[in-house]
Amino acid sequence: MSVDRSWFAMLIVLPTLLPLIGAALTLVMGRSPRVQRAVTIVAITGAFVASCLLLYLTDRHGTYALHVGGWDARGTDNGPLGITLVVDQLSALMLVVSTIVLLCVVLYAVGQGIRDGTSEQPVSIFLPTYLALTAGVCNAFLAGDLFNLFVSFEVLLAASFVLLTLGASADRVRAGVSYVMVSMVSSLIFLAGIAFAYAATGTLNLAEMAIRLQDVPDGTRTALFAVLLVAFGIKAAVFPLSTWLPDSYPTAPAPVTAVFAGLLTKVGVYAIIRAHTLLFPGGSMDAVLLIAGLLTMLVGILGAIAQADIKRLLSFTLVSHIGYMIFGVALSSRFGLSGAIYYVAHHILVQTTLFLVVGLIERQAGSASLRRLGGLAASPLLAGLFLIPALNLGGIPPFSGFIGKVALIEAGTQDGSVLAWVLIAGSVVTSLLTLYVMARVWTKAFWRPRADAPEGDLADIGPSALVDEEGDIAFGDRADVGGMPVGMVVPTMIMVVAGVALTIWAGPIFDFASTAAGDLSDRGVYLSAVLGGPR
Fold it and tell me: Residue 101 is part of which domain span?
């Protein structure tokens, strides 16, 4: 056991540390693009390997906490001193899925030749910023105190703004400013929640706070939860706090949009799961969460139906399917949590894949507008890369989307309340409408002749990219139309395979999610791991 624990201590810092070191090195090597790319790929691959080992160790030995600097777990009257990193089965699973996505997206971006600005600006900031984003995502899943989680969110915010405004076009700057304003409001609310929580409990360590909140009056505890839910709900794009997302994501380059859609909202969902199960168990806000989940599903998918641009359409489906995860969390049952965890993993992979495919569509046809697209089925490879994740998102059996939705519906029937049955009906309607939206994209972009598209003759001109003399992509006035580089296709294929693997090994993965949900439901596992014994 001591060997295993020493492995834990060494590995738990690597998913955050390796990308940070890589970010520093890529900044230093800004004039050597090949070295930058190599360092980035090695750093994220190392984080992925470390995450896989943590997944194995948590499965065999349970939750582990590392008190950085060797501070005593008992600390002072204000709880443990220093930074605490905690890895359990939920955080390990999120790390593995996230690093898979981050690695595939950066390979896709390298294949596309992402750089900042135009060919007259050869020094890239994309890769250092991307590595900073990676470190923020990984640290958020490992944070054992509220302030460290806040720092992770701020790292994500700073890196996201740079990535969102790459190329500095008017649309991207406008979307970036809107994104930053909303994120700053979320951060201020979160910071206020941290201050209120510290005033009520005298600590920011999650484990110590979970114990002390038991002595806080119910009204104060509910108010604290509400403040944190608003902050996390903005990050997760839960309705009515989701209106910023469809206007922000579609303007960014395809790799940036893909990683934002796949991961950033899930960090907010993860924070909601952690707060709901560890800090505020008992279901005081479950009715509110159930209603928010229902409205998120329906408003999101109805918004998707009204869109003519595939990126905006997928952004609305992204919002819609966050509702499924909130549904599972709000049921406050082990089976509901299991379904929510499985669905989070499924949605990260599938949603990222679809946005990567949209990047291929733009590269192949010069546009992502359904009014300009048609005849893409002439490329069987592109058609297959879209069709598989589209069916998965729509919940067609036997894909993982169907499995996750069935699990959530079954958890709702076990709950048996009127509100749970309303959510079940809403989830079925949302699934059918999602399938309709995906079928609409298929028939218009792939099946119909391009000549029948209302603006088919304009598709060759787009605002997305310009190939410079080195073969890299810069952000100019025309799209590089008609080709799909191998460097973009292969990572997309890997993502498609990863989504299918979630279906093939659905049994073991769902069992793992169920075990993770069991540990979340039993707070004593987390508390004893962090504080060193029963409290």
Answer: 2-531
